[in-house]
Amino acid sequence: MLEKINxxxxxxxxxxxxxxxxxxxxxxxxxxxxxxxxxxxxxxxxGCDGRVVxxxxxxxxxxxxxxxxxxxxxxYGFEQDEIGYKVVQLRPGIYTGQVKWRxxxxxxxxxxxxxxxxxxxxxxxxxxxxxxxxxxxxVTN
Length: 141
What we know:
Layout lengths: L1 H26 L15 E4 L5 E6 L4 E8 L13 E9 L2 E9 L5 E11 L2 E4 L8 E4 L5
Antiparallel strand pairs: 1-2, 1-8, 2-3, 3-4, 4-5, 5-6, 6-7, 7-8
């Protein structure tokens, strides 16, 4: 009799465990929660004044942003292909580092910056008004 009770308990436990596993499998996304939204900064980003920043890997850890189109930055003495960003990735979609600032009189400084990438939207904490929010430039063939 005791064996029969233990067998029933084991069957109930296995049934419950099977239901739990099936529930987890059914609710889990096969590719993860953010696979359809890019969080990668690599590529070209355009600001509201026509500037374009191309982010690319300098080495395994460091990512640089070069100005491929100057737009309104020309008035501050920036040059084509000049490095204006040096960042590293903290986690998917979040980058930290420095952004270059220039004054109209030629002064140069680097300010700390934190960048967030969500799909085709760029936002940061330290740029001027036309780079605080940028959009990804679509590559056309």
